[in-house]
Amino acid sequence: MIDLEEIITKEKKRIVQVNKVPLNNRKVNAITIMDSGTVDGWAKNGEIVITSSRMMPEDMGVAKQLLAQLVEKGVVALMVKPYSPDGTGEFPQVLIDYGNQLNFPLFKIEPSATYIQILNDINALLLENRRINKMADLDLDYLLKSNSASDKDFDFVSGLKDINLYELNVRVTKIVLGETPKPGERLSIQFDLVNQIQAFFDRVQREGRIKTYFILESSNGATAISFFSNDQVELPPHDRTPYTRLIHNVHIPRFIIYEGVSNAYPAKKIHRCYIEASFGVEIAQTLDWSDRPVFYRDVGLWKLVQKLSRAQDSRLYPIEMDQILEDDEMFETVKEFFRQNESIKKASQAMFTHPNTIRYRLTMIYKQTGLDYRLTNDKFLIYIAFIKKLLNRN
């Protein structure tokens, strides 16, 4: 993908904007020719559409409807050849005004320019951009998954941003869709998702919270890597604010969004960031926490429990606790008790039952295991047993 603003800058001799819509933060992934007066079946998210006056509806009401349909499809901009045979015609003012109303960029193609020139130039820019991004993706994927990255491994991506990334700090954010999109809708959904994530990090960058960022796409989401200086490091709990804003602002119709966020580390520990963000999003999916970012520091204990549960002779609590949690009713009770910050009243409300019912079930744990939910140490052991059971279920 490439910025529309960059394309227009390089094509300014052939293309002139006719309305006053800002061009920043508009990502282009293709260009296509409109050869009919309807958008069904061909207009796609992220495209620039070019056409001639002959293809535009003569009725301004129908033409306005066409613009609205292009916007609905996620088209980035419309470029039209002049409205008269000699090329001197003006773009209809009614469409210019409507384009402003829709926040949709409209352009006039200069009479001397041809479709082929514009298509070739823009496709060349897109091809070069894809080639560079592919190389960057390969380097970043290596950095994320290698535990032995050196400063030299950052050279190419540092050159793209004209910053020595190795000297900065890094944080990884992993965004995952609740399910993998179907093949026919995958490209459109991925483009929409990445566009929204880019818009968020563009804003964070303008706010001075980070130096730069990269986004890597996956089959069911994306991984964002943000770099920042020591002066830009935000300590807990203040670092939670922007990532809460992210998950609340990313909307993909029909899809649930999960977000895992790593701690901040020096760039050389980018692999650790990736492991933390991946575990965070795994827990978010496990508990269906789609309304909040899951920071690794919130669930780091869970990682420790996972490691201990895989080791032999690591029994931390009575074996009867595992047997109790086999019962779905008891499992849900313990889950809701901790989910509601150990509030019996809130747990009972969430489970639509009486508080005494919750107390009775928790007391049954004490009678069978000796673990008292009112004592800090015992409560901690019940929590560990619950985490282990939850992770094993998934």
TrEMBL record:
It comes from the Bacteria. Pfam families: HTH_30, PucR. It comes from Lentilactobacillus parabuchneri. InterPro entries: CdaR-like_regulators, PucR_C-HTH_dom, PucR_C-HTH_sf, PucR_dom. Gene3D superfamilies: PucR C-terminal helix-turn-helix domain. Coiled coil: none annotated. This is Carbohydrate diacid transcriptional activator CdaR. Residues 331-386 form the PucR C-terminal helix-turn-helix domain. Residues 25-125 form the Purine catabolism PurC-like domain.
